[in-house]
Amino acid sequence: PFNAGFFCFCDVDGIPATQLADHLMTTYKTGVVPTESGKINGIRIAFCSVAEQHIPRLGGNIASAIKDLG
């Protein structure tokens, strides 16, 4: 439900976005774009680079990484 967009931005609370992105890449082989600037701390997810059947796995990887670091 992102208005047919190819990307979404998720705020990350309590974990630096760059740390989360690094952990996702090294542990889960999942790439996201971190953004930390002022009050902004989050990750950009590109659905356009993920096959539809792999989107649940993408979400699971992100949730697992947040639990790992939380």
Walk me through the structure.
The protein is α+β, with helices and mostly antiparallel strands and 70 residues long. The chain is 39% helix and 24% strand. The protein has 2 helices and 3 strands; from the N terminus they run βαββα. It has a 3-stranded antiparallel β-sheet, covered by helices on one side. A hairpin with a 2-residue loop joins strand 2 and strand 3 (40-46). Helix 1 (17-28) crosses helix 2. The protein is globular and about 35 Å long.
Sheet with most strands: strand arrangement? 1-3-2
Question: Segments where pLDDT lies below 50 for 5+ residues?
Answer: none
Average pLDDT score:
91
Number of helices: 2
Q: What portion of residues belong to β-strands?
A: 15-25%
Q: Write the element-wise H/E pattern from the N-terminal end onward.
A: EHEEH
Helix share bin: 25-40%
What's the end-to-end separation, in Å? 26 Å
Number of strands: 3
The largest pleated sheet is described as: 3 strands, antiparallel
Q: Compute the gyration radius: what is it?
A: 12 Å
The secondary structure category is alpha+beta
Shape, per Cα inertia axes: globular
List the topology elements.
Blueprint: E1 7-11, H1 17-28, E2 33-37, E3 40-46, H2 55-69
Antiparallel strand pairs: 1-3, 2-3
Quick summary of this structure?
The protein is an alpha+beta fold.
List keywords for this structure.
single chain, 70 residues, 3-stranded antiparallel sheet, 2 helices, 39% helix, 24% strand
